[in-house]
Amino acid sequence: MKNYPLSVQIWIVFAIITLSISILLSLLLPITLRSFFTREIYATIDSAQDLIFNQFNSQVYRDYLGSEFFGDGKQKLEDIRTVNHFIIYPDDNSVVINFPISKEFLLGVKAASDIQKSNSEEYSGMLNGEKVFYIITKGKALGRDAFLVSFMGDSYREDLVRTLFRRLVIIVLLVFVFSWIPALLLSNYLTKPLVDLERKVKKIADNQWEDKVELHRQDEIGKLGDSVEYLRNRLIRQDEAQQSFLQNVSHELKTPVMVIRSYSQAIVDGIYPKGDLKGSIEVIDKEAETLENKIKNLLYMTKLDYVSEYDKHMESFSLDLLIKEVIERFSLNRPDIQWNLDLKPTTIMGDMDQWKVVVENLLNNQLRYAKSEILISLKDNLLHFYNDGPHIDDNTLSNMFTKFNKGYKGEFGLGLAIVYKILQMHNSSISVRNEDLGVSFFIEIKTI
Questions:
Q1: Nearest by Cα to 216 from 181, 182, 192
Q2: Which of 97, 284, 353, 406 could be disulfide-bonded to 86 (CB atoms 3.0-4.6 Å)?
Q3: Which DSSP symbol is given to 332?
């Protein structure tokens, strides 16, 4: 059904609901109606019997009946809504009746009256091939003990049931046939914003995201539209960041390449820009190293995107020892720096190689900007890096760890973006703030 248009799906749902209700009513309604009308029939018979006994108790009615009550000219008893009556006198087993009745039915009524213990009992039986409901009541008729038998045929009840059921079937059929109208209106109400949303999503997929996604609804469809609009804005920002990144990358990679090429060409021509061959070769080597680091960072960022989805290598290791190991290697680059360490023994669960990259990138950042002091502390699951270098401007501070973002002082680099990505993969977080003198980085660590 999911392959049909939404309007057809809604109509099918309407039809199924209507059909289910119809089947349920067709099963329950006849039973319910028959039970209800059966009680109504017995109530009608009971009311008719009360009237008959009241007439028997009337002196006028007794004088009117006279001695001919049992004769050929016997008066037909009063009927109420097709209720028929006859009397059985148990003392001589005589029957007062003014209409033909089957012998089998009469014998069955007499047998029931003989064993009846209560004053009045309800019965059902067959008379001339039709089901009838009757009540046998003990009482006095013209001063004699008698059984008043009153009955009604089942045709009255069945006619009512059939009439109501036919009308119900007609109503259900009409609802079933015309249910496509509300289904069409409902589907149009639901599909119109979805069709508009589909059109805009296709434009977004084609990098045409100028049109805003505004559905002006508060329901689930409206929330879906808001999510798509949020996605559109994120894609716009990411596209702008990528464009900026490509420009920065091209500029940063082009600079060392140009230096390498110009120095190489000069050496080929017998010219040494740095005065001698060794000094010129050292410049080429330094620029090649810079180029290598930039390319390595780009590749590592791509690798992290893959690792975060497919390959996670987690192990338990001592973070304080890892930090000391990295410091031993990096401290030689700046012998003028004063190192203040406060590293408490801390064991964490994670990828040790990735955490080493985190520490290396942060230390490299500290060494680049520190004037004379670097402080590193590790306690209570909080890793703190501090350097006494210059403050970071507010705009750069808020985008410090954004992918494809320039570093502060306008320098290109992915080091802090890599740090942020790795910490995110380890359910940890990093923040940065300017101190009165210098800059601090804080890492909240998730331990084992």
A1: 192
A2: 97
A3: G
State which CATH number among 3.40.980.10, 1.10.287.80, 3.90.640.20, 1.10.287.130 fits the domain covering 220-304.
1.10.287.130
Q: Are 346 and 313 in contact (CB under 8 A)?
A: no
CA gap 151, 83 in Å, rounded: 6
The CA distances from residue 397 to 363, 401, 433, 434, 440, in Å, are 18, 9, 8, 9, 11
- Reported in sequence order, the residue ranges of 159-204 that DSSP labels E, i.e. its strands, are none
Summarize pLDDT for 393-405 with one digit per residue, the tens.
Answer: 887 787 778 765 5
Query: What's the pTM value of the predicted model, to 2 decimals?
Result: 0.47
As a whole number of angstroms, the distance between CA 222 and CA 215 comes to 6
Query: Tokens 């069709």 — which residue?
Result: 195
Domain 6-176 has CATH 3.30.450: yes
Contact 193, 201 (CB under 8 A): no
Sign, Cα dihedral of 247, 248, 251, 253: negative
pLDDT digits (tens, 9 = 90+) for 353-392: 899 999 999 998 899 899 999 999 999 889 999 999 999 8
Pick the CATH number of 312-444 from 3.30.565.10, 3.30.420.240, 3.40.190.10, 3.40.50.720: 3.30.565.10
- Domain map (residue ranges) of the chain: 6-176, 220-304, 312-444
